[in-house]
Amino acid sequence: MKYFAIGDEDTVLGFGMAGVRGRAVRDSQEAERVFGAALEDEEIGIIIITERIADMIRPVIERFVFTENFPLIVEVPDWRGPVEGRPGIRELVNSAIGISL
Amino acid sequence: MEQYELAPTKTNLIRLHEDLKFATLGYELLDQKRNILVVELLGLVDQAVDFQSRMNEELQKAYATLQEAVLRMGKIRVRQITAAVNIDVDIRLSTRRVMGVTLPVVDTEFTENAPYFSPVGTTFRVDSSLESFKAVLQLMGKMAELRISVLRLANEVRKTIRKVNALEKIAIPELEETVSYIQNRLEENERDMFVLMKMVKKRLEEKKLQNITEKESGRSH
A96, B127, B130, B171: which is deepest, by most CB within 10 A? Predict the structure, then answer.
C-alpha cells in the first residue's frame, strides 16, 4: 500500500521527493473531489492531508476517522506551520470521553 | 417505578432477582472493559503526543530546506529532480483488536533505487530536504497508527462509559426498587394473613364457648 498526499503545492512537492504521490488542491470542492478519489483507490493506505485543507472538509473527514478501517488519515501542518488553536490529541481525547487524562 | 404494574407474586420476585443478578454481572464486565480501555488509551496518548511533536519538528525542518532548495534552483528544476527520485515507499497495514475495537498497525518500508539524479548543478539542500521528508514518513506511519488508535479507543471508551452509567444509575436501581417493592408487598400480605387467621381462630373459639354456655343453660332449664 502507498501514501497519498493532499495539500498545497509545496507540501505535495516535498512529499513527492520522498516518493509519495499526491495532488495539490486549492479550494474545498477540489479537496473533496481528490479526497473522495483517494478513498476509492485501493492502493492507498494512508492519506496525508495538510491541516488547512483538512479544515476545509472537516465534516467529511470526521465521519471517516471513526467509522472506516482503511485508509488512515493523518493531518500534518503545512509549510506555514501548525494552525493556531488546534486541539491536540490530548484535548481531542478529553473532549471525547469527558474526563481529563 | 415503571415496573410497579408487575403483580407482586413470588414468580415475579424470582424472575426479578435473576434479572438483577444479570444486570450486575453486565455492569461488572463493562466496568472492567472500561478500565482496560482507559489504561490502553493512556499509554497510547503519551506515545502519540510524543510522535506528533517529533514529526512536526522534522516536518518544519523538511519544509525549510525545501524552501531553500526552491530558492536556489527554482521550482521547475526542483520538480524535475523530484520526478527523477525513485524511492518506493511501501506500507503494510494490519490490525489488532483491543476489547472489540479494531486498531491499525502500520509498517513503513523504503526501497531506494539510487542514484536518482545527477549531483551536478544540484544544491545539497535537495538532499537534506529529501532526507528530512524520508524521516517524516518514517515517523508518519507510527504516528498515523497511534493517532487513529487513540481516536477509536476514545470513541469506544465514551460508548462504554455511557452503558456503564445507564446500568449503574438507571437499570440496577430500578430493578432493586421493584424487588424491594414486591418483597414488601409479599411480607405485608403475610402479615395480613396472619392477622386474619388469628381473628378467625378467635371467632371460632368464641362461637365454641357460646355453644357450650348455650348447651349448659339449656340443660339447667
Answer: B130
